[in-house]
């Protein structure tokens, strides 16, 4: 099958959840399909990664995304009904190239990642699959609720309302829509009753993230948080961790524990907190190193949407997970079997201490977490499911 894939980011290097997902799906789907990839990039240095992607794609073309606060983006957001997140990706060069490649290659299917690239796709009869990695208006609404400045809050609420409208409109334009979690799927079908929504969760490369047979030994235990801090939910989670949860853990375990925060674009408030046994790393090229050198992943996530790669990767490597109800959403994990789940700072701290000090619980969580990802979240299984949805759409 000839497939045109349109993404709002280059699927390599694997620095974000979206990149991890798209790259692994490309790698698996390319064994059966001929894929043309059109992607947005932020910087010229990303051009170096095209060689890697061409191993899996018939053709790759890239286009520059405008910065969020560029004058053009702000003007477009002001004079059109599109929200700012759509205006960042409105691109005349991309539209012209899409028309040309569609007439030249006669695609069977268009796969669009995220609704905000959809306005660039020319009208036609090619079936469109729209994959929504999160329900965007929920993400922005969650963030807007925390804004104190009234004028800024009113502007952001107006933008959230536009996201809500266009998200729904583009769902309707697609032949089928893909959700990452059951809760996202249910909300989509509630908003559009006759919408054809398929559940295709995020996954993990179970060969790349091999299982650690034995837990680390040593007097000092390491609590890990992993994230790309451009993502609002990760900034919120790590701030809550450092300010509310970590002090309680440290009070209980003293010098026997340290907190390790790993990820790109570390926020200034976290950089300034790098003391009291807190270590920051933004230059780890192989994230497996972080999991191998840690004892537990602590992820106090409260922002909605998607499936958390850090949790799947941690489970795959045999590092027990302590997280929130929101953080574990979509993984069908059971509390105290596959992961430990709590929603307030006191319980998150107490349960993290329990995982670190209870050898039987630690062993069971490590074994069961690995079994869960092997059975339900390997990329090979997920790609096969996506392929069956392609067949249905065509």
TrEMBL record:
GO biological process: lipopolysaccharide biosynthetic process
Keywords: Transferase
Pfam family, one: Glyco_transf_4
InterPro entries: Glyco_trans_4-like_N
Glycosyltransferase subfamily 4-like N-terminal domain mapped to chain residues: 16-207
GO molecular function list: glycosyltransferase activity
Organism domain of life: Bacteria
PANTHER family for the chain: GLYCOSYLTRANSFERASE WBBK-RELATED
Name of the protein in its database record: Glycosyltransferase subfamily 4-like N-terminal domain-containing protein
Organism: Candidatus Gottesmanbacteria bacterium RBG_16_38_7b
């Amino acid at each position: 099958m000839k497939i045109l894939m349109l993404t709002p980011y280059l699927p390599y290097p694997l620095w974000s959840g979206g990149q991890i997902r798209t790259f692994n799906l490309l790698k698996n789907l390319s064994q059966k399909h001929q894929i043309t990839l059109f992607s947005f990039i932020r910087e010229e240095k990303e051009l170096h990664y095209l060689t890697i992607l061409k191993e899996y794609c018939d053709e790759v073309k890239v286009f520059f995304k405008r910065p969020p606060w560029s004058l053009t983006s702000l003007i477009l957001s002001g004079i059109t009904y599109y929200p700012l997140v759509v205006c960042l990706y409105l691109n005349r060069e991309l539209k012209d190239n899409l028309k040309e490649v569609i007439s030249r290659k006669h695609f069977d299917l268009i796969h669009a990642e995220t609704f905000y690239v959809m306005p660039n796709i020319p009208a036609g009869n090619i079936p469109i699959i729209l994959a929504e990695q999160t329900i965007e208006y929920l993400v922005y609404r969650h963030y807007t609720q925390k804004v104190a400045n009234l004028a800024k809050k009113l502007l952001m609420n107006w933008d959230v309302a536009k996201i809500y409208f266009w998200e729904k409109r583009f769902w309707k334009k697609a032949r089928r829509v893909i959700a990452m979690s059951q809760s996202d799927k249910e909300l989509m079908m509630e908003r559009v009753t006759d919408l054809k929504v398929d559940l295709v969760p995020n996954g993990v490369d179970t060969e790349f993230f091999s299982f650690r047979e034995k837990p680390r030994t040593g007097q000092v235990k390491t609590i890990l948080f992993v994230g790309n801090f451009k993502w609002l939910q990760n900034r919120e989670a790590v701030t809550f961790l450092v300010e509310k949860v970590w002090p309680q853990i440290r009070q209980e375990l003293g010098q026997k524990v340290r907190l390790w925060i790993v990820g790109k674009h570390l926020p200034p408030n976290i950089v300034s907190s790098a003391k009291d046994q807190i270590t920051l790393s933004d230059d780890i090229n192989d994230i497996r190193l972080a999991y191998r050198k840690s004892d537990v992943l602590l992820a106090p996530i409260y922002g909605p949407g998607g499936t958390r790669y850090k949790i799947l990767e941690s489970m795959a490597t045999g590092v027990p997970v302590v997280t929130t109800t929101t953080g574990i959403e979509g993984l069908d994990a059971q509390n105290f079997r596959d992961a430990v789940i709590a929603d307030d700072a006191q319980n998150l701290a107490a349960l993290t201490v329990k995982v670190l000090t209870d050898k039987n619980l630690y062993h069971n969580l490590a074994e069961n977490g690995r079994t869960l990802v092997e059975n339900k979240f390997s990329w090979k299984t997920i790609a096969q499911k996506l392929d069956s949805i392609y067949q249905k759409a065509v």
